[in-house]
Write a structure and sequence with these properties.
By secondary structure, this protein is an alpha/beta fold. The chain has one domain: STAS domain (Transcription Regulator spoIIAA, 2-Layer Sandwich). It is 35% helix and 30% strand. It is built from four helices and four strands. It has a four-stranded mixed β-sheet, covered by helices on one side. Strand 1 and strand 2 form a beta hairpin. The longest helix is centred in the middle third of the chain and has 17 residues. The termini are far apart. It comes from Natronospira elongata.
């Protein structure tokens, strides 16, 4: 089996309630994503800029659903911005359009 460089993921604060997610939101980073999200205040509106997400898979979508669930449970709201086409496709084929709202285009 060939060595593969590990996937990386970063979550940085971009303002009050605004965050920028970058890197790969995949099986290999799902646990890291959940750990990074401990700094989010799910009781408020959490706006995620996803323009820096280079790759996403079903595990990444599961992380997004978990973040949405945590917001709902805490009385907050999750808003996604600059959603990559790959994630839009996963949301649509998983019939989660109603969870994440208008995906644009």
């Amino acid at each position: 089996m060939a060595d593969q460089s590990p996937s990386s993921l970063d979550l940085e604060k971009a303002g009050r309630g605004r965050y920028r997610l970058s890197g790969e939101l995949v099986f290999g980073t799902a646990e890291q994503a959940l750990t990074l999200s401990q700094s989010l205040d799910f009781a408020t509106t959490v706006e995620l800029d996803l323009s820096g997400v280079k790759r996403v898979d079903s595990a990444g979508l599961a992380v997004m659903v978990e973040w949405w669930r945590r917001c709902q449970a805490a009385g907050g709201q999750l808003k996604l911005g600059e959603i990559p086409e790959q994630l839009k496709a996963l949301i649509r084929i998983s019939q989660l359009d109603s969870v994440f709202g208008d995906l644009g285009g």
